Amino acid sequence: MNNNDENRKDKQLEEYRADNRGKKMTTNQGLHVSEDEHSLKAGDRGPTLMEDFHFREKMTHFDHERIPERVVHARGFGAHGYFQPYESMAPFTKAKFLQDPSVKTPVFVRFSTVAGSKGSGDTVRDVRGFATKFYTEEGNYDLVGNNIPVFFIQDAIKFPDLVHALKPEPHNEMPQAASAHDTFWDFIANNRESAHMVMWAMSDRAIPRSYRMMEGFGVHTFRFVNEQGKAHFVKFHWKPKLGVHSLVWDEAQKIAGKDPDFHRRDLWESIEMGNYPEYELGIQMIEEEEEFKFDFDILDPTKLWPEEMVPVKMIGKMVLDRNQDNVFSETEQVAFHPGNVVPGIDFTNDPLLQGRLFSYTDTQLIRLGGPNFHELPINRPVCPFHNNQNDGYHRMTINKGQAAYHKNSLQNNDPQPASEEEGGYVHYQEKVEGRKIRQRSESFKDHFSQAKLFWNSMTDPEKQHIIKAFCFEVGKVKSKSVQQQVVETISQVDVKLARQVAIGVGAKPPENMDDSVEKLTSPALSQEKTIKIPETRKVAVLAADGFSYPGLNQVMEDLKKKGVIAEIISHNLGMIKSSEGQELEVTHTFLTSDSVLFDAIYVAGGKESIDLLKKERGALHFIQEAYSHFKSIGAVNEGCDLLTSAGIQIDGPGVVTSREQANLNSHHKKFIDAISQHRHWSRQI
Fold this sequence. Notes:
With 685 residues, the protein is of the alpha/beta class. The chain is 29% helix and 16% strand.
């Protein structure tokens, strides 16, 4: 436990004591309680009496402490922070929180996985939710998105079908938090609008390194509307300051066993240490007059707007600087809704968005016990709210007055609607006409062009990861028919991809198809083009008694200066002593930690230390596993011998070594540069 953790715990304990110091225990009705360890009985060995109201109240509260988990996005974790615009966006929107660069708008963000239950692991292959609640002076605005810019389906009426296919199969309730099973892939093969999304889901985007290194997207097309009533189509992006980085599949699976709370722990500890996650808010905008100029429908939620066609303009930043005080009260009870908008932000006819505008309220009613979930502290707006909606389950406001309807004369018809000039929300006056039909636009029927664009934009290592992901997922499918259908679907994206997947899962490869057409690319889709910096990366330093203090102390200082977090791993907890007599505290042991929980490995010098580590199988495995996951490995002096014992090529890609004490500064710089690269994919070759 670091000093920040201890200080926070001390502060929380003091706050608790301050709230309860000198207080007497009461029931929830304020009645003082005389006994809290024994229920009321008829004699000391008799039955408990039904009149024991204190027992019943206490037990009833306990019985109902858990609320239904979300059907999707059940596994989540949140943090508080603020949003601050870079400049006034008045030319495009009248939303007040996007006007003044000096104003910080409070936010609460909930990150989540989609498929798994509340108790599932953080690092499973899945879409991640990225939902932001802005507590603006005009009311709450919710930007409810994902870490992938498109979705599986085009119309909300198919959402129950998608989730039923994705969730554990009903006859045996397996598998948990995974899509590697028959019903999901049967859905993909028979609903080809999912082709683009499934390419993203099989990519590294579905196994992010952390929430801090994950993009967010609003997915849908919305509208900005300015004071003059002019509208622009808009898409929202969150770009992380640390770049977009991912785990590798084997690593993700092992982390799920070693630390199923890996992502939430990373977020919590980063904020506690003052390494506040930061994201830029970007927007893509299209003039209304240009709605039909593209070869895709801009309202189709299975399509993105390539950034090379429609650039992303950065308009502000979000900083997450405060952890939750209570996960249940905040993360579990927060209620997001894409319909929570403010003047200047409006909807479009995206059929998936239109359905979400109904389903989110409907979901909260059952989860949070009725229509008053907006009064929970985490959901309550910072501005006042007034209306005639009284009563209902869990009403917290004590409404006064005789009339609870509109219009009335008894209370001067208060509260009254606000005009647009007074801040009243007025829907954009889009012209709508047409026959009532159950049909999808012809412009929504191209399901493969952007799936091809995504595949063609990947680097060779990224393509190999996608191939392996398909082989793993489809290889778990029991139905040979479904496997074959999936291969045929993939062949519409790329024939070579389909052939390799077919070979991997034992299906029939596709017949020769024309694969000579021009292959368009969008470099912005590849994670390899992302920001690469060392800040907040975690390095495991392997050392034991007899380590060389000057070298280890210097590398720890050099890493700290660059914002890299170094933790010492050894045989036992406690202190280890250098050959020069200094002591350092061990953070983890080879039993309590693992290489998959770190971004890089460094082996300290010192003959006695290395002789001890050579005898430790855990140390050798630590190094070998990190190398197999393409991570940076550094070693100095005798530490190089431990790499040799582990079978690591000393001058291999991402392996930084030195046996010259005079060159330590240069050595450490090279090691930090290697950490910045995230992975060294040339080891795959």
